[in-house]
């Protein structure tokens, strides 16, 4: 079976600033794959190339065997994408938000209402469905975005830091939904995070990025065992990134602060 | 838990067909226009606040200048002459706002999400352009009602009204895409707000919205000739008030201008998304 997502020697630079270098990834069907790394590691850039938002040369990135450089539109049909920012439209109701994406993915008219209802239900939003998203909590907005991404029944769900800024209850709410959906549909999930305890709990395999390069890859257990008994994934992270969280974030810090602020403004 | 839609079978490569592309474009336009109307339904305050300015132009400027006969408009009362101009102006102000909206959508991740749907960029921009047209049209209905209350003698011919609606939509599509194009050039909301303010008033004053072309100084007449707003106003006047208008020319200019601007804005959209 073809890999749901595959990159070979992926390289991406913003003018002369290299964001991702020599990256090889191969996701297995049906797994939750975690892309880990400190701020500015290149996680979002990698995801933007895979989702066709940034250009890739032919032969470097495939989704379900389709080259993203050559079959952009078909690739998009197979993807469900939730960006790092909270991106639901606050001036529309939950149901309208999801229905828009059902239309944009050409879910047939006869099935549309049912598809929208069932994803809203699966995300625990049935009761809130007809309120505008401006009244939603951060956790609800995230679940709404999952509903938007899932209504087209994607083969690969791509989530950029799905739990950032959420409280512990909202976090586990989001993860529970992700696992339920995966159990039921068998879709592959590609997720980024810099929360190591989440990666340990929820990811089947992870790759650790630092300054655009892959530093380690494997199951969380493999990575921890390799470092020695009692090692946590946090230790693995520190071992491979070599320095503290704050130092490694320097390059990306300005942008990241801006993004965080925008997110805060939207949630607020 | 309810049953989720199952993933489709393995990817098949879509075949390109012109008919399929047009059908897709129409579906996307429908989806975006619907969202625009839903937003209006949830928040009607904007509809009201955006009515204040055209209402003032008509009620204060229009009635005063009508009374003192300061601007010679032949047998047409000045208020009647002015009303189509104000209609076009209110549509212009709405459409020019769309570039700012697109930048906001980029910052909020909404644009990225839209771009990761199977929607060609041109379809996305065209859909936005027509969504702006729909919003402008809803606003136009309000302005028409105000004008009628002030005694403007609009046509009751349904075909002419439909024609006027099409003109408003085309004009809005052009200015919406002009605004998205500028957004794609300057990339930041603050700069675009500045530019938006700097160009909307000149576009309005360098058009035939307020006064007949013959009254303009020569240089202004030249600008007026390349200003799509003037063609929009000319067509609206011809259709709604019945003044002599070059409807054929107006229609051609508006269609071509909108088509060109949609292409330019579509070409700049990826730059905007990356920025
Ligand atoms: N549009 C851009 N223009 C210029 N540089 C960029 C741009 N986007 C990202 N970068 C840079 O590329 C590098 C990788 O950024 P990226 O957003 O992929 O990191 P990340 O791992 O997602 O970080 P975070 O955890 O903060 O989201 C960073 O150094 C960042 O500053
Ligand atoms: Mg990121």
Q: Could you provide a short overview of the structure?
A:
The complex is a heterodimer of chains A (268) and B (275). Chain A has 268 residues and is an alpha/beta fold. Chain A contains 11 helices and 10 strands.
Secondary-structure blueprint:
The complex is a heterodimer of chains A (268) and B (275).
Chain A: E1 5-14, E2 17-26, E3 32-36, H1 43-50, E4 61-63, E5 66-67, H2 72-78, E6 79-82, H3 94-104, H4 109-122, H5 138-150, E7 156-160, H6 168-185, E8 188-193, H7 196-202, E9 205-210, E10 213-218, H8 220-227, H9 233-241, H10 245-248, H11 253-267
Parallel strand pairs in A: 3-8, 3-9, 6-7, 7-8
Antiparallel strand pairs in A: 1-2, 1-4, 4-5, 9-10
Helix pairs in contact in A: 3-4, 3-5, 4-5, 5-6
Chain B: H1 18-42, H2 45-68, H3 78-96, H4 98-107, H5 110-115, H6 121-149, H7 158-186, H8 189-205, H9 218-226, H10 228-240, H11 247-274
Keywords (chain B): Antibiotic resistance, Cell membrane, Membrane, Transmembrane, Transmembrane helix, Transport
Subcellular location (chain B): Cell membrane; Membrane
Domain ABC transmembrane type-2 (chain B): 45-272
């Amino acid at each position: 079976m073809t890999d749901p997502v595959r990159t070979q020697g992926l390289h991406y630079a913003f003018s002369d600033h290299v964001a991702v270098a020599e990256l090889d990834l191969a996701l297995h069907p049906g797994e939750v794959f975690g892309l880990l790394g400190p701020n500015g590691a290149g996680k979002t850039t990698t995801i933007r190339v895979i989702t066709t938002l940034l250009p890739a040369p032919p032969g470097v990135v495939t989704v379900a065997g389709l080259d993203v450089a050559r079959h952009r539109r078909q690739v998009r049909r197979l993807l469900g994408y939730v960006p790092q920012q909270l991106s639901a439209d606050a001036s529309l109701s939950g149901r309208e938000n999801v229905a828009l994406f059902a239309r944009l993915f050409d879910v047939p008219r006869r099935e549309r209402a049912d598809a929208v209802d069932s994803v809203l239900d699966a995300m625990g939003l049935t009761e809130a469905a007809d309120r505008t998203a401006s009244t939603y909590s951060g956790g609800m907005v995230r679940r709404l975005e999952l509903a938007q991404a899932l209504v087209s029944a994607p083969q690969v769900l791509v989530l950029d830091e799905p739990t950032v800024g959420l409280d512990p209850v909202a976090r586990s709410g989001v993860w529970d939904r992700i696992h339920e959906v995966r159990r039921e549909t068998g879709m592959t999930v590609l997720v980024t995070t810099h929360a190591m305890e989440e990666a340990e709990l929820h990811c089947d395999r992870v790759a650790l990025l630092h300054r655009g390069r892959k530093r380690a890859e494997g199951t969380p257990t493999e990575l921890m065992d390799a470092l020695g008994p009692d090692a946590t994934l946090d230790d693995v992270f520190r071992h491979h990134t070599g320095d503290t969280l704050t130092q490694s974030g320097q390059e990306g810090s300005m942008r990241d602060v801006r993004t965080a602020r925008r997110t805060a403004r939207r949630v607020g | 838990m309810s049953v989720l839609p199952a993933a489709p079978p393995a990817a098949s490569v879509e075949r390109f067909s012109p008919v399929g592309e047009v059908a897709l474009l129409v579906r996307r336009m429908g989806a975006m226009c619907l969202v625009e109307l839903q937003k209006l339904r949830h928040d009607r305050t904007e509809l009201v606040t955006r009515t204040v300015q055209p209402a003032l132009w008509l009620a204060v400027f229009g009635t005063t200048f009508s009374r003192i006969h300061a601007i010679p408009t032949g047998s047409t009362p000045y208020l009647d002459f002015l009303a189509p101009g104000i209609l076009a102006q209110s549509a212009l102000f709405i459409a020019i706002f769309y570039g700012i909206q697109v930048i906001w959508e980029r910052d909020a991740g909404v644009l990225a999400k839209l771009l990761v749907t199977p929607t060609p960029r041109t379809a996305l921009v065209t859909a936005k352009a027509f969504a702006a047209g729909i919003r402008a049209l809803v606003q136009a209905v309000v302005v028409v009602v105000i004008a009628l209350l002030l005694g403007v003698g609009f046509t009751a011919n349904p075909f002419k009204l439909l024609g006027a609606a099409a003109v408003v939509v085309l004009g809005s599509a052009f200015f919406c895409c002009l605004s998205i194009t500028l957004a794609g050039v300057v990339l930041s909301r603050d700069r675009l707000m500045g530019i938006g303010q700097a160009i909307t008033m000149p576009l309005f004053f360098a058009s035939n919205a307020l006064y007949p072309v013959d009254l303009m100084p020569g240089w202004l007449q030249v600008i007026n000739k390349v200003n799509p707003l003037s063609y929009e106003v000319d067509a609206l006047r011809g259709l709604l008030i019945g003044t002599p208008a070059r409807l054929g020319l107006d229609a051609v200019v508006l269609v071509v201008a909108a088509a060109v601007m949609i292409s330019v804005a579509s070409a700049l959209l990826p730059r905007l998304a990356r920025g």
